[in-house]
Structures are given as C-alpha cells and as structure tokens.
Amino acid sequence: MTRLTDLGVTDLRDGIAKGDFSAREVAENFINATNEAEKLNAFITLTPDHALKQAEEADKARASGQLKALSGVPLGIKDLFCTNGYRTTAASKIIGNFVPPYESTITEKLFAAGAGMIGKLNLDQFAMGSSNETSAFGNVISPWRQKNDDAALTPGGSSGGSAAAVAAKIIPAATGTDTGGSIRQPASFTGITGLKPTYGRCSRFGVIAFASSLDQAGPMARSVKDCAALLEVMAGFDPKDSTSADVMVPNWEKLLSSDIRGKKIGIPKEYRVDGMAPEIESLWQRGIQMMKEAGAEIVDVTLPHTRHALAAYYIIAPAEASSNLARYDGVRYGERQTPEGSNLADMYSATRAAGFGDEVKRRIMIGTYVLSAGFYDAYYIKAQKIRALIARDFEAAFDKCDLLLTPATPTAAFALGQKQDDPIAMYLNDVFTVPASLAGLPAMTVPVGLNDQGLPLGLQLIGKPLDEQSVLNAGLALEERAGFTSQPEKWW
C-alpha cells in the first residue's frame, strides 16, 4: 500500500479531489514525518498549525465542490520567504527573531491556492553558500549516504533544506530561490527536480534579497509534472515588484508533453571543464542519447564567454549583496549589539560582527571592494560587460537550437566540511549553473542516475527566455527515459 508521504503534489491534489483520503490525513502524515526527521536539520521553524488549518479548509472545500489548485497540499517554504505572523530568519542571527507583518507574493499565491505550510526550511545564510554549511541554525544533512560510508553529505545550497526535505519524503515539494544555481545544484545532489524560471516570472516581493538582479524563486519537487503545477501558481505579474514580467502565465501542466520530436538540443563544448568527474561526462553522454531516442536532433554550439561566467558572477552577486545587506545595521533592521560605552560606529560594527556569518562577511567585503572608488570600473563594470556578452552567446546559440543540455554539477554531493576551508573550490560548484542565471534564462535539473557510490546525479536543461514549456517538456522526456526511482535508505 502506498504511503501518503510517498505521493507528490499532483497525486495528493488529485487524491484529495477524488476522496481517496482527506487533506487532514495528508497533513498529519507529513507533520509526523517531519517530527521524525530532526537529524536532517532541514527545518528552522515548524508550522503544523498552518498545515492543519489549510487542510481543514481543503476538506470543507471538497465537501462544497470548491477545491482550489493546491487544496490540501502541504509544502515546505524556504526561510527566505516572508510569512505573515511566522518567524523568517534567512538562516541568520541578525534577523533570527524577525516575524514579518506581511506575506511574500509567492507564499500568498500558494496559500490562496489552498496549499499549507509544514514549516520554514533551513538554508545557507542569506542564501550565500553551496553546501548549506553557512546557516546560523546548523548544517542541513543530506538524506543520502555513500556506499559503505556513514559520512554526512551536503544536500547542496543554498536551498539545502528544501532539497533534503523533498528527497527524504518529509514534504512533497518546497519553494526554493536560485541566484547562481541554488535550486538546480541541490536538486542534482539529492535526486529531485528543481526549476529556475526566467528572471521576472516569479515575484521577488517579500523574498529577502541577496542579489536583486539574479534572485528568482522556483519550485523543488519529485517530478517535472509537480514543478509545472507549482510554477503555474507561483508565477505571474506583481505590481509590487518592479522586475516582475507582465506576461501571461501558460497552463504548463496541461500543455506538458514528452514529445520533443524535431526539437534541436544544443551541446555547448565549453561545459567540458577541467576537474569535471568522468562520471559526469558519462552521464552527459547518456542524456544526449536519451534526447536522441526522444526524437530530438543534437547540435554542437559554442558559448565562448562561459569561461568568464563564474568570475563575473562572484563580482556582481557580492556587489549587490553588499548593497542589500547594508540595511542590517541595528538601527531599523537587525538584532542590535551595544557594547558598554560604545558610540554609533561601535554599535554598527558590533551588530554586524555578531549577526553575520563568515561567508556573508566575505561576500560583503568583496562586494564593497569592487564597488569602491578606483575599482568600480575595473571590476564591477567589466563584470557587467561580461554578463552582456554571456547573454549574447546564449542568443546566438538559440539561433541554432531550441534548448541546451548540460551537466548540473561538476561532481556528486561531497562530505560536509570537505570544502569549507576553500572558498574557491566551493564556488566552483556553481560553474554549470551560473551562466543561465547571469542571462536570466529558465533552467531545470532532472535526476538521471547514480554514481558508483550510489549518489544521485542530474542534468540541466536551459531554455529561451519565457519558454519554460520547452524546458518542462524536454525535462519530462528525460525523466521518462531515465526512469530515476532511487531514494535514500532511511537512517534518520
């Protein structure tokens, strides 16, 4: 018999609608699952009251024939989304007790569609990190283990709590945010599906900012279909967000089709990088073969400025972070620290020193440096020019193809602590995901197989601006042919 916690978003939605089970049963099962998974440290704050209240509303709605798009579906919310009346921390001490008096547009849409909130998910502090080791609330631990090895593994970052919770089946799906790969990389590390939509598809209102020209919310779930269903609710124009795209939201789930015959899939040669694990190259070739079997034509393309993407990203993103995080000074925002006999400057210094973690401080300092007089033109302006060239490379590639297929990560998940002392090695985790972020393109990760150590590996699909449908369709074709059903053995 299938357990309710084995079901994804659309199966739960449809089961509630048919009366196979009640929304309350669903909520209670997932609440119990989260309570039994404390060792993963996936959640910062649990909100069972919210999930049960929404379940009650869903059961009433079913009785009256007024079910909504996500009635009775419980979700995990990354603790970067402001939730009215519920603590929102960004995994940081400096706003560790912040309870927003307003709702982010994304969560407002999800809750209005009937979804419940199981809890707020752990993440890298202010979404800065690739391994979920920078949280002020402790590391998230992946539910996966290598063969014959009990070493704790990273779930990826920054949406590590979201990825770990979905992979462990303690929630059916979660919200994530992606600045340079923070949905796609953890999805690959944990064997789930994650979608970063086109920049502007989803409102950023109420999402605590890291890098405003890059941050984009998206769904993390167990299937391509579930991602499509969630994105339909999450997407849409928002007048409260000046970067929100005023375009129609398609019915992605209804239009979902794995028939990609005649589509041209581009293979960028620049994604074969030094240090890429042989298993990743092998996986990529398998993916190419799957696309051929699905009827797609494979074409070689070039993205010549890709090699500069990571360097440009780690100038632009810290620069924007430096600006965005300047508000947390203990005056209007942030937990104030006032050493005895201190003046205003001392208070600023003490507040930020105590409130921010090492990685956040590192990025603020990098950002402040590249924006300072004498270095602005040399670094920040040059990085923005590189960004424009990268976007132009993608435009030229899409003249020859409809989509790109690339690896999602250069390796499988690594052990916690393995790269913590080497920021450059950590930043290299984003080498395959950053280019699409700089260009603002839709991209998703689909799990395709396991490596020799039994850890999941994913591939990335990148599409044209606002063409999430083609990305989802190709993702479905890949998902069907990969037949990925592996899941971690429960140890928690």
UniProtKB/TrEMBL annotation:
GO BP term, example: translation
Annotated GO CC locations: glutamyl-tRNA(Gln) amidotransferase complex
GO molecular function ontology, one term from the record: glutaminyl-tRNA synthase (glutamine-hydrolyzing) activity
EC class: ligase
InterPro entries: Amidase, Amidase_CS, Amidase_dom, AS_sf, GatA
Domain of life of the native organism: Bacteria
Keywords recorded for this protein, A-Z: ATP-binding, Ligase, Nucleotide-binding, Protein biosynthesis, Transferase
Coiled-coil region list: none
Entry annotation: catalytic residues: K78, S158, S182
Subunit organization: Heterotrimer of A, B and C subunits.
Catalytic activity: L-glutamyl-tRNA(Gln) + L-glutamine + ATP + H2O = L-glutaminyl-tRNA(Gln) + L-glutamate + ADP + phosphate + H(+)
Similarity annotation: Belongs to the amidase family. GatA subfamily.
Function field: Allows the formation of correctly charged Gln-tRNA(Gln) through the transamidation of misacylated Glu-tRNA(Gln) in organisms which lack glutaminyl-tRNA synthetase. The reaction takes place in the presence of glutamine and ATP through an activated gamma-phospho-Glu-tRNA(Gln).
Name of the molecule in the record: Glutamyl-tRNA(Gln) amidotransferase subunit A
EC number: 6.3.5.7
Keyword Ligase assigned: yes
Database matches in Pfam families: Amidase
Native species: Zymomonas mobilis
Entry-linked NCBIfam families: gatA (TIGR00132)
Domain Amidase span(s) in chain numbering: 25-472
Gene that this polypeptide is encoded by: gatA
